[in-house]
Amino acid sequence: MRIDIITLFPELLRSPFEESILKRAIKSKKAVINFHTLRDYAYNKNKQVDDYPFGGGAGMVMKIEPIDLCIRQLKKERTYDEVIYLTPDGEQLDQSISNNLSTKKNLIILCGHYKGVDQRVRDHLITREISIGDFVLSGGELAAAVLCDSIIRLIPGVLGDESSALTDSYQDGLLAPPIYTRPANYKGWEVPKILTSGNTPEIEKWRESQALEKTKKTRPDLMEDHG
Ligand code: ADE
Fold first, then answer.
1. What is the position in ligand 1's atom list of the atom closest to the CA of 130?
2. Could you say which of 46, 86, 114, 189 is the most buried, measured as most Cβ atoms within 10 Å of its Cβ?
3. Centre of ligand 1 from the C-alpha of residue 87, in Å
């Protein structure tokens, strides 16, 4: 998978790709990430990328020309499955969106800043608008890191243990059950006996019931979908 990220602040985005699972995915070429600094596509000599809103009001608006130029150049080189704009008023990211995007070949992600982008960018250049939650960040960069992490880890071969993405929270519509590791007893805080019993079918049953209980308590809304 190739992801082209268009941003005013690439430095905000680099470090998540330089550690752990994302770093490995990039090293093994399962994911190719390219940053494009919007200022490099600005037209005038002041490298202007934003301007005052028509009609007045607070905040600056990201101009269409540099964004259009950047996307046009990228599209000359390859076909993109989606051109995603990260914005708090987009559709809310969930595991099924991440699963779907993880099967794509080429993605463009545009990070907004200030008041956001000129509406014509959204109307004519963007194919999908995604929010990572009902809160407002200072810009789309951190949201882009969240989105990329959630999809890259799902690309086959990226996680060492293939089954481990399948047992994540949300993957079966439930929250994940509790997990433990050694020591079995720490300061008298004991691991549930069933987990050290070696009885795999019973352990599976226990995990399922714990997942159900946790979901009912923390996210009852998910129970409706689970049936
Ligand atoms: N940009 C600012 N806030 C955001 C959010 N919640 N999701 C995606 N992009 C954003």
1. 8
2. 86
3. 4
Whether 116 lines ligand 1, by a CB cut-off of 6 Å, is no
Domain limits, the chain: 2-152, 169-226
CB contact at 8 A, 177 and 210:
yes
Q: Is the pTM of this model over 0.85?
A: yes
Separation of CA 85 and ligand 1 centre (Å): 9
Q: What is the pLDDT of residues 15-68, one digit of tens each?
A: 999 999 999 999 999 999 999 999 999 988 899 999 999 999 999 999 999 999
Tell how far the Cα of 84 is from the centroid of ligand 1, in angstroms. 12
CATH 1.20.910.10 fits 169-226, yes or no: no
Contacts of 175 (CB under 8 A, 6+ apart): 169, 211, 214, 215, 218, 219, 222
CB contact at 8 A, 22 and 152 = yes
Q: Whose CA is nearest to atom 4 of ligand 1?
A: 88
Topology (CATH) of 2-152: Alpha/beta knot (3.40.1280)
